[in-house]
Design a protein that fits this description.
By secondary structure, the protein is an alpha+beta fold. It is 36% helix and 19% strand. The chain contains 3 helices and 3 strands. A hairpin with a 4-residue loop joins β2 (23-30) and β3 (35-38). It is globular and about 35 Å long. The two termini are 12 Å apart.
Amino acid sequence: QANKMAVADSVVSYELFKVPPRWLFLRIETEKSIVGWGEPNVEGFSDTVATAVEELMKSVVGEDPSRIQFILQKLYRQKFYSGGTCDVVLALSFFVLYIPTSMYKDPY
């Protein structure tokens, strides 16, 4: 069976959307125009979480979104004490899991 996975892709941009009174949404786009969404938020701390996302996304832009485990481990271990970014990493993981599944030409 031929490999159904498309050629490697990379994360090229992201955008945060703060929606009052307390929501924060993250849109991430790849070089091939695949878009993933996540909701990185801690109730009542949208600005704080947005700052954390901004910091962490510096390490995500340019990465191949199909390398799920690599990206999650990189985010989990890098800037804060180990595990301190769990909520943000969880939200980013939604996009990380969504984009590779969208890269399949024929998932069935």
